[in-house]
Amino acid sequence: MGENNRRKILVAVDESNESTYALSWCLKNLVSVQNSNDTLILLFAKTPVAVHTAMDSSGYMFTSNIIASMEKYGKEVAEHVMHKAKQVCKDLNDHVTVEIVVEHGDPRDVICEVAERLKVDILVMGSHGYGAIKRAFLGSVSNHCAQKVKCPVLIVKKPKSNAADH
Amino acid sequence: MGENNRRKILVAVDESNESTYALSWCLKNLVSVQNSNDTLILLFAKTPVAVHTAMDSSGYMFTSNIIASMEKYGKEVAEHVMHKAKQVCKDLNDHVTVEIVVEHGDPRDVICEVAERLKVDILVMGSHGYGAIKRAFLGSVSNHCAQKVKCPVLIVKKPKSNAADH
């Protein structure tokens, strides 16, 4: 590793296996094992609970109970994703400093905003995160971020051949 | 650096300062100085000489002399780009193995083809290479490659603040 040995590496994590693969690849290939002054920042974007006012016309409203359930579910997903991500870090590089960031919002905006705000040295992400359904609505998160953020962007695709690995 | 210490790193180089910056970033951040078993493959795509048959209607034809001059110019550009890129490698990491690949064709196709053929571990490229005019015709080379190649892709943007650096 060269002169930049106090780097901030932002890794966007989500529920997908591809995101876990991207994190593993980053730990194996980008983070120095010998002399790691790198800080790995794990970022999870919680898509906000959507209260669709369009549904009012049918007389249907989300009750506060339903909203609370959805928020609880979102919180549980975030905790699960972060627990899994931290375990991957521990397994592959026990010395690297790991920080956790969970923010509400569209992943595309959240990732770009956090990358700029924290002045990270590199953004690492899977290419097909955030699930097929969300992606259909949001477009490719990685494409969007690769074009918008100013720092280097590493897009890691999970090989199809070893789908069982993380 | 983790277990993958015999890696093939493909770096797409061209005439742009951004491509030189991407190569430098890669050498400083991705290639291990201490124990480099990495092979850095520098790839330059020479856009083929276009003989526009549409021009025949005006009675104008490229003479063999003009074609020879254009090919000579293309060869000189390739040599200049590779000389500069090898110098950057020598300055930043004298131990890394460097290989040179020059191929004819649309950079988008050439980069994707070489990445697959050589089974590289990562593709590194600037985000705005190949000049503004060519880009207007070709579209973003990095966008295209990031979507098409199967290996991880690192897109490095040159910061505007230190435009004088390489």
UniProtKB/TrEMBL annotation, chains A, B:
Q: Give all residue intervals belonging to the UspA domain.
A: 6-157
State the superkingdom. Answer: Eukaryota
Q: Where does the UniProt annotation place the signal sequence?
A: none
InterPro entries from the UniProt entry:
Rossmann-like_a/b/a_fold (IPR014729), Universal_stress_UspA (IPR006015), UspA (IPR006016)
Matching entries from PANTHER family are given as: ADENINE NUCLEOTIDE ALPHA HYDROLASES-LIKE SUPERFAMILY PROTEIN, OS05G0357525 PROTEIN
Mind telling me what this protein is named?
Answer: UspA domain-containing protein
Q: Could you tell me which species this protein originates from?
A: Penstemon smallii
